[in-house]
Design a protein that fits this description.
mainly alpha; three-stranded antiparallel beta sheet; 10% strand
């Protein structure tokens, strides 16, 4: 089954939204897939595409500095985080007034 580019973009938006909600804490691919109820390999491919676009950051080491062999943690990039924050602040202000 093939998924349209439009649907992939919507799912990527869900990933970014989730990463924004837990920011600055990075999380594993499996946890992201569980949260947005998608296949882990599919989510991994979307995360790699987002990484190429500079929207997410891949972390390949654990907090002690030891490199992961088969897994990665992900977090939203600083630039994208700032855009999301501005959108949320703007929406919040619009709802108040």
């Amino acid at each position: 089954m093939k998924i349209s580019q439009e649907k992939k973009e919507k799912i990527s938006e869900q990933i970014l939204s989730y990463l924004y909600s837990i920011s600055p804490k990075p999380t594993f691919t499996a946890h992201i897939a569980k949260e947005i109820i998608r296949d882990e390999e599919f989510v991994k491919n979307l995360l790699k595409d987002l990484k190429k676009k500079g929207m997410v950051t891949e972390i390949k080491k654990n907090p002690k500095g030891k490199e992961y062999l088969k897994r990665s943690r992900w977090k939203i990039s600083d630039a994208v985080y700032n855009v999301y924050r501005q959108i949320n602040e703007s929406t919040f202000r619009d709802n108040i007034y």
